[in-house]
Amino acid sequence: MANTDSSSPSIFNVRKTPTFILVLLLCIASYFLAAYHQGEPLLTTATTASLHLSASCNHLTAQSSRTFPRCSANFSEYTPCEDPHRSLGYKRHRMIYRERHCPEEPLKCRVPAPHGYRNPFPWPASRDRAWFANVPHRELTVEKAVQNWIRFEGERFVFPGGGTTFPNGADAYIEDIGKLINLRDGTIRTALDTGCGVASWGAYLLSRNILTLSMAPRDTHEAQVQFALERGVPALIGILATKRLPFPSRAFDMSHCSRCLIPWAEYDGVFLNEVDRVLRPGGYWILSGPPINWKKYWKGWQRTEKDLNEEQTKIEEVAKSLCWNKLVEKDDIAIWHKPKNHLDCKLTQKRSFCSAQNDPDKAWYTDMQTCLTRLPEVSNREETSGGVLDDWPKRLKSTPPRIYRGTIEGVTDETFSKNHELWKKRVSYYKTVNKLLGTERYRNLLDMNAYLGGFAAALIEDPVWVMNVVPVQAKVDTLGSIYERGLIGIYHDWCEPMSTYPRTYDLIHADSVFSLYSNRCGLEDILLEMDRIVRPEGCVIIRDDVDMLVKVKSIVNGLEWDSIIVDHEDGHLKKEKVLFAVKKYWTEN
Question: pLDDT, tens digit, for every residue of 101-159?
C-alpha cells in the first residue's frame, strides 16, 4: 500500500550549511538565495517548516499561495485535451473529435487518485500486472477476453501478453517478426506502435533493447493507454487524424500496426504518408491483421474477399507511391522498407515532393499533408540521407548526425560532449538528494525541457524510461537529435495540458521550464498540470533561477507537496538552485 505516514524517513538527504554564512550571503546578494535543511534528513512537517528562507531579508521568504482545492471524484481520470464528453462537439470526419481539443480555461483544482490507489508494481513485474484500484475498468477483460489482452484476478489485472492478431502472446509474435528482420543487432532501437491496445508489443520489445512509443486515442477501448502506463511502458494518447503526430521527421527505426483499424489507403494515403515522415531512412513499417492474409481469414473478419483484396491493393499502391519496397509478406505479417535516400524515387502524378518551405519537423498543430517529405540530399545511392546512425548502445553517446552535420543552430560536437558529461554530474548529484532515484521505485519519468536528452542518457543504466519533451517555444529544435541518440520524446507547449492520463509519471524533471514560460502563461497552471500527471508520492525536480524557484515554491505550498530548495551541484555561489518536491498521498473520498 502507499505510504501515508508523515513521520517516515524522507527520500531527501540534504547537506548541512552554516546558517549565519548563508544569511549573510543572501542579504548581500539576492541571487544567492536558497533554502537549506538543517539536522536529520527527514522530510516531515516540522523539518519542512525549517526550510523557509531567512526572514532577515523580507524578499527571501516564499509567501504561501492559496491552497488549491481538490477536484471531485469524477475528475480522477480527467484528460483535459481529450475529454470524451467535450469531444462530442467536434466533427467525426477523419476522427477529428478524437484529436486534441483543449479547454479554454484550465482546471484550477487538483485531480484525485481513485479510492484505494496503490503504488504500481515495480518493473519488470509491472509488465505483467497492475492494481485494479489504479485503473478501475473491467471493460477490456470482457471485450478482449478471447484475444488474451488482459484478465482480472482478485485485486489486480494480469496481462498475458496477447493481442488481437497475436493471441499466442507478443513474445512469440515478435519472434516471428525477428525471423524476417533483425531485431537484436542494435540497428533497430526506436519504434512507434499505432493503435497499441494495452501496449504488449512495446512491453516485450524492451527485453530486446527496442524502445517503443505506444500510441492510441482515448476511445471506446477505455483506458488502453492508461493500462500501458501502469505497466511501466512508454505510451501517449494520440491518433492519426488531421494533424501531424508530435514527433520530428526521421524519428523511428520501425513503425507497427496490428489490426489498429487505421484506414491506411483512404484520404490519398495521408496516414501512411505521415508514417513515412516520422520513419527513418531505411526504416520498416509492419502491418498485421486485415487485410494481410485475407485469403485465410476473410470469413472470420466478416468481410468479402473482393473488399479485402481491394484494400490490400490500395495499401500496396500507396506504399509504392512513397517509394517503399515491400520486403516480405509471410503468414499474418507484411513488412515494407523505406529507402535510405530518394535518388531513385520516381513519383507519380498522384504524389509530389513537399516544397523546400515545408518544414518536416514542424509538428505542433500542423496539418498532415499528402506530399512526400523529401529526405536530405545525398551524393550517391549508397549514402543514407541525414547520416548513418551507430548501432545501439553506441548510438547513445555518439554525436547525432543532426549535430555533426550542423543542422541545429549553435549546437556542435563540443556542445554535445560537454552536455553529456554535465548531465552525468547533475544526475549523480540528484541521487545524493533523492535516495530513491535510480531504484525500482521510479519507472516512468518525464523531462519537461530535455534539450539534448542528457538527463535521460545519464539514467540509461537504471530501470526507467524517460519521455523527453522539447517545448515548441525552445530556442532550437533538438528533438530529432534526441531520437538519433536512441531515445524518445515529443513536442509540447506547457501552456496546455499533456496528452496523457493523470498519474502517468513517477518523477518529473523540469530544467528552466518556468523561466521559459514566465511571460507566456500562468506558473500555477503548469504546476497544476504537473500535479495531475505525477503519481501520489511521486517526485518533482525543478532547476531554475533562484528567484523563480521562490515563486514556484510559493505555489507548491498550496499543492500539498513537501518541498525543499537545495544548492546547485557546484555550490551555493551559483544563482541556479534545485527544488525537490514529493506529492503527498491522497485519494478521492
Answer: 999 999 999 999 999 999 999 999 999 999 999 999 877 655 555 566 788 888 999 99
Pairwise CA distance, residues 34 & 155, whole Å: 45
**Of 336, 369, 339, 341, which is closest to residue 355 (Cα–Cα)?**
369
Question: Does residue 26 contact residue 34 with C-beta atoms inside 8 Å?
Answer: yes
DSSP tag of 197: T
Cis? peptide before 393, omega within 30° of 0? yes
Is residue 471 within 8 Å of 195, Cβ to Cβ?
no
- Residues 46, 468 contacting (CB under 8 angstroms): no
If DSSP codes are grouped into helix, strand and coil, which group holds residue 511?
Answer: strand
In 3D, which of 396, 500, 496, 511 has the Cα closest to residue 447? Answer: 511
- Under 8 Å CB-to-CB from 102, ≥6 apart: which residues? 80, 81, 496, 497
Helices (H), 218-269: 224-230
Whether the pTM exceeds 0.70: the reply is: yes
**Closest C-alpha among 506, 536, 500, 493 to residue 77:** 500
DSSP 86: G
Among candidate residues 121, 125, 122, 124, the one with its CA nearest the CA of residue 206: 124
Give the pLDDT confidence of 194-215 residue by residue, as tens digits: 988 889 999 999 999 999 999 9
Strand partners, 530: none
Q: Which residues pair with 469 in a beta bridge?
A: 490
Three-state DSSP state, 40: coil
Ramachandran angles phi, psi of 422, nearest 5°: -60, -45
